[in-house]
Amino acid sequence: MSNLHFMKSTFISSNEDNIIVLLHGNSSSPKVFKDLKLNNSVLIPTLSGHEINENPDDGIDFSLQCYKQELSSLINSYDQPILLVGNSLGGHLAMEIANQIKKLKGFIIFSAPPVKKPINFEEAFIPVEALQTFLKETSTDKEIANAASVTVYDQKFKEQIVDDFKNSNPKVRSATAEDISNGNWSNQYELFTNLDCPKIIVSGSNDPSVNKEYLKKVVKESSHDTSYIELEKCGHYPTLERPEEMSSIINKLAVEVFELNIK
């Protein structure tokens, strides 16, 4: 039985009810969102096993299923219109829970190609050996530094990636790897393309791991209002690397989707 527990989160309130939810990735943290300037209330969950200073093996379940339950229950507890934003694993989780979010109004993912089932690795991703570190329980400092270096365009952001990696429970990585190899991810392509709200896929032009041609194809095949935005000189973490542009993209969609829902 899964060991469901309370997921830590930060809520930044503004003077209206609509909420932007920001989901970080595997071995990352809410710090990748620290420089965003958003005009709505913001909810930032910390995925279990992340932002810790030691790595206890206390039996916490880091599986996709558990993350999905924790996130949908946390987000729905606010009972407000939601704009869901996800980076990397956070983007994959956003697709997995989208249909469970009762008041979902808009959707933005980046560094998270909507995969099919079974996972279409060759089509959606570009293989980068260094990035296998994000799916391994044990890695050397050199491997971690190398993986972090590959993910960002400007190396000044590398330190943040390394710190977040080291402050996450190694079992988070093995649990994610296990979910992938056991075929536990949904058909995210289907979930994303059929999602009935305005959607944006953002990609860093220097993200080494994601096939941008595949992303454009997904956008083309999507229902509803879907667009693709590519940010120059940007790697796998657009909110960290290009916070001004990302703030503008998120705020612009928020105005559109939340105003549509003013009664």
Structure at a glance:
The chain is of the alpha/beta class. It has 10 helices and 7 strands.
What does this structure look like?
This protein has one domain (9-260): 3-Layer(aba) Sandwich (Rossmann fold). Helices cover 37% and strands 15% of the residues. It contains 10 helices and 7 strands. It has helices at 64-76, 89-97, 121-124, 141-151, 158-166, 170-181, 188-194, 212-220, 238-241, 243-260; strands at 9-12, 19-23, 41-45, 82-87, 104-110, 199-204, 226-231. The chain has a 7-stranded mixed β-sheet, with helices on both faces. The chain is globular, with a radius of gyration of 17 Å. The model has no long low-confidence stretch (mean pLDDT 94).
Which runs of at least 5 residues are low in confidence (pLDDT < 50)?
none
* E-strand count: 7
Strand composition percent: 5-15%
**Strands of the largest sheet, in order across it?**
1-3-2-4-5-6-7
Which of globular, elongated, flat, extended, rod-shaped describes the shape? globular
What is the number of domains? 1
Helix/strand/pairing class, anyone? alpha/beta
Which helices and strands appear, and what pairs or packs with what?
Layout: E1 9-12, E2 19-23, E3 41-45, H1 64-76, E4 82-87, H2 89-97, E5 104-110, H3 121-124, H4 141-151, H5 158-166, H6 170-181, H7 188-194, E6 199-204, H8 212-220, E7 226-231, H9 238-241, H10 243-260
Parallel strand pairs: 2-3, 2-4, 4-5, 5-6, 6-7
Antiparallel strand pairs: 1-3
Helix pairs in contact: 4-5
